[in-house]
Each structure stands twice: as structure tokens, then as C-alpha cells.
Amino acid sequence: MRHMRLPRSQRPVRLMAVGLLAASLALTACGAGSRTGAATATKVACDFTNPSTPTTINVLAYNSSAVDPFSNTMVASCTHDNVTVKHDPIDFAGQLEKTTATLAGDTGTYDVVETYTYAIPDLASRGKLQPLDDLYAKNKDKYALGDLDPNTLKSMTYDGKLYGLPMQSQLLVMAYRKDLFDKNGLTPPTTFEELRTDAKRLQDAEGMKYPIALPLLSTADLDTAFAAALGSQDSAFFVNPDTKKPNFTEEPTAKALEQLKSLLPYMDPQVTTFDQPKVQQQLYNGKAAVAVMFSGRMNDLVQQKNTKLYDKFGFAAPPAVFAGGKAYSTVSTDGWSIPFNTKVDKDLLFEVIGASVSQEASQASVPAAFPARTTVDQSASPYAAATKDSLAKGPTKEIQPYVPAVSEAIRPVLANYMAGKIDVPAAQQQMQAAAEKVMAAQK
């Protein structure tokens, strides 16, 4: 899951990439973006009332193979007459930094910003985004917005108001070496216990030292992993939504910590430095046989230009931490939002983002993306079925304004625990104390 918490105006500006969720989910990613616009852009209808004077629309969105089709289509389709749409290549960390800056004052640099499920509550609660309900109703028929998955619209909603127009979703998906699994009589694991058993078999039979690869970098990746392991246990949350008391001293936290560490013997010792691109590299070069990453990374695995193993991968929903539990997964919807401080006409901006998520644009994003539209044919996507299964089996999302801040607060504790510097009880106590401090500041 991907979390993005931006500071209140009286706080020092600071970068915060909170996990995936995911992934984030946050998701640290960098792709070709506008630098390869000709390859990923689709020309669609973008019919708006032409402004009387030249107007530039600046779009802020990070580059990845899953997001690029939408941002590049926006640029290619809506730059005409007196309107110029601009999108400069940028990575995820850079996007967060620029989002912080553009929303900090009465006048911003960007007119359209990419937002995520876990960013919406924080940004909307502080008045940083323009409500879109009236614009959505006005353009619903024109852009067939009723075909957007209701769950994705809900994930872009806060306190009953819509703050983002969904384009695509990211879920944790398991990629595995189907050839090696078939050779050794293995099937995709459905629990962490089965995952460990399969990994041991691959170590013994194939001489593969580190069969498992997970993104456990001590940034958003690590707290995305913890949240997925926690949520797998009957959708356990960081904080009790009724009492607002953190839950880190409870048994599910202990089990989540123990189960994450139980995978370390089957992973590269440097795994706590692995972001998602590094996990991809482990699969590309054959050093790992199974990995769990966000779905936006999956299409890269089947590209012959990336790896000679492009035709060896299978995809499945991630395993549950324990039998009978939810999948080790999370979902984050990416969408377009309009900043509160843009000076560009809001009707024009909504026309532009509406065009970028149209049926034609969404269809063209497959298989790189998992678009929000229910009417898109995803039969060309090798991982779409696994993504849908991950969605069906995944935990209930914890979407609250305080989640990004809690995630950031517990991250150093998680890093120390995974590094072996503290044990489970100490980690629980430190996480609880850090989260209680965050929640006290929320009052």
C-alpha cells in the first residue's frame, strides 16, 4: 500500500512515503513515463470548451509502467487548441516531495495530482483537495464514469465526498517460477507455512540459496509488509477505530512480526535493502523463485527485453499468514485529484482527467495496469486473474487520516526488529508507544 501524509502548514516540511501497498500500499517506483510517451500514449476524445486564452495544465504523477499509460494519454489527447498539458518524468519520492510543496500554500505549481487510497483521508481532512462530486455528476454520462468499480470510487472518498477519480488499482500479487514449481511437484503456496516448505524444497533440489524475495526496504515497503501480515489475521488494524487506541500490544502484532522474520532464512541477507525494483532483479536473474510485489510490477516480468526467463513465471494471490486467514495483501487505488489551490478552471481539469480514464484509455492500459473500469477486457493480462483473486481474498482496508503517521512512527521499530536488534515484546512496546504519541497529537 502506498501512504502519503503531507505536513500541516505549521509543521516543518518533510518527505513521507508510507507503505501497498501498497503497497503503497506505498510503492517506490520509477519508469519510463513521458520520456516514452509515444509507446504508452493513446489518443482518445478530450472535448472541452476551449479557454479564451492559452492555458497550461501541469500534471504531477510518478512514473511506472502502470501509471504512464494514463498520464501519457492525458498529455497526448488533451493538448489541443489553447490547452497544453505537461507532465515531467519523476520518481515516487520526487512526487511526494513536490506534492508537499504544491499543497503548502495558497498558490501551487500543479493543477492535477496523482493521489492514492491512503492519502485521500489525510489530504481531504485538511482541505487540500477539491471535492469532485458535482463535476463527477456533470460528466458521468459523457465519460461513462458509472463503469468505474464502486469500490475504487469509495476508496477515493472521504467523509461522504469524492476527492479523486480512480484510474487503476495496485494489489499485492505473488509471482513464482512456474517451471521450477512444476519440476519439483509444487503448487503456489496458500499459507506462509507452505511458502517456507516450498522454499526449503527449492533450496535442496535446485541449489537456490534464496528462493524468496520480498521488498523489505526500511521505508514504505517494510510497513506495507507488516500491515499485510497483520491484516491477514482477520483484518487486524493498527488502531481500534472506535476507541482510537493502538493495537500493537495485541497477539496479532506478535504473530505478524514472528511470521515475517520466519521467511528470512530463505531470503538474501540484504533483503532489508530491497525495494520492488531490486526484487524484480532477483526474479530477472533467476536468484529467486517466488516474490510478492504490487501488481503494477508484474507485467515487467513477462517482457523478453527484461529477462530471458520472461516465459517462466506464473502468478497467484499471495498466501495467507495462517490457514483460513486473509491473503497477505493490500490494495491501493491510484486516482487523479484537483488541488485546492489551482487557478485553472475546475471544469476544464475534470474534462482532462475524465478523458484519461475513459473506456478506450483504460483498455489501452492493459496489461501494464489493472484499470478501475469494470468493463475493460483484461484477458491479455497474464496477472489479472491473480490480482482479482488477491482482491477477493485480501483483508479489509484500514483507511483513516492517522494511518500514514502511525506507519511512519513504527517504521524505525520494524527496521530494528528485522535487523535483530530487538525482540518481539520490545518491538510491540515501542510500536505501541510511538503510535500512542501519534494518536495523542491527532486530538
What does this entry look like structurally?
The chain has 443 residues and is an alpha/beta fold. The protein folds into two domains: 38-169 and 332-389, D-Maltodextrin-Binding Protein, domain 2 (3-Layer(aba) Sandwich), CATH 3.40.190.10; 171-331 and 396-442, D-Maltodextrin-Binding Protein, domain 2 (3-Layer(aba) Sandwich). It has helices at 37-40, 68-78, 92-102, 120-125, 133-139, 150-155, 178-183, 192-206, 220-231, 251-261, 276-284, 298-301, 346-356, 359-364, 384-393, 403-418, 424-442, and strands at 55-60, 83-87, 112-116, 157-158, 161-162, 165-177, 212-213, 290-294, 313-316, 331-337. Strand 4 (157-158) and strand 5 form a beta hairpin. The longest helix has 19 residues, at 424-442. Residues 1-38 have low confidence and may be disordered.
